[in-house]
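Annual report, structural modelling task.

Input specification for the N,N-dimethyl-L-histidine complex:
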Amino acid sequence: MKKTIALEVLTDLESKISIKEAFARDVLIGLSATPKKIPSRYFYDAEGSLLFQKITELPEYYLTRCEFEIFENHKQSIAASMRNETFNLVELGPGDARKTRVLLEHFLQQNLDFHYVPIDISNSAQEGLVENMQSDFPKLRVKGLVSEYFNALNWLKNLNHRKNLVLFLGSSIGNFNRESSRVFLHSLWNSLNADDCLLIGFDLKKDIELLLKAYNDSRGVTSEFNLNLLHRINRELGGNFDVNRFRHYASYNVFSGAMESYLVSKESQNVMIQEIGQSFSFDPWEPIHTEYSYKYLESDIAKLAEDTGFIPVEQFHDTARYFTDVLWRVQKQ
Ligand code: AVI
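The model returned the following structure:
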């Protein structure tokens, strides 16, 4: 007999277009622009999510290990901030939630009174996650939501009046540019109640050599992850990209403080995309921008909290001080 999965699929009334239609629209807009670009959110189809998982295990990609270390060393303090509360532990874009398990296990051991509410736009990814969590932690109360983040948070606000501790982990905020990160965090603030909390991960500015290695790993997994965007266009939109005629390139921009990733055309070529009904031409060495991964100073983080309505409560670092998770509280008059 099939077990019931604690999953709620919320429909966003404003956006009725399918993921494939949005992908085709964004590829058309991006490849028609100068310089060419494709939004990084399209990395994460099934293949891309597996490749990202492999990246997190690479020796050069320190970010995930640092955040694991932070949770292992500071789970007591994180739990202490929610003791005597009934709360939702809401996770935005949990992926396989490997790091979150450290917190879940500890919160359960400490008998904290909480529900785990992962929110993701992919139905299949959420189904797998909720199923795994239910079988690995039989005592855990899980309610997976399939929706855009803000839509889900607003739904949650009307459903119950438990306090929320929102997790936005793994430097996901780094994939927004400086302006969009402010807009995103202020929208998050708007969807939360006074005194709700946010635990958010930031990758800190550090020796440039370490950054370059993290995004140009020796096994070429990051290159595969980036090139998968072209495979995805071929698979889903009927493109005829010859992926071997492009290369991965990642560099650090010291002025903006971002690792920037590109796919560069190695020669002059035309690529047809059936679903768009158009072909796109590439000059030799013409780039497609695919991702920003912004790195932060401690002072940038403090300013970001101040500008978006949050009060810093506590801050945690790994021992190398490469990464930080900060606990912020929503301030509303
Ligand atoms: C998901 N995100 C935080 C990763 C990052 O570091 O920007 C994605 C990634 N791109 C290349 N390697 C990892």
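The first strand starts at residue 7 and ends at 9.
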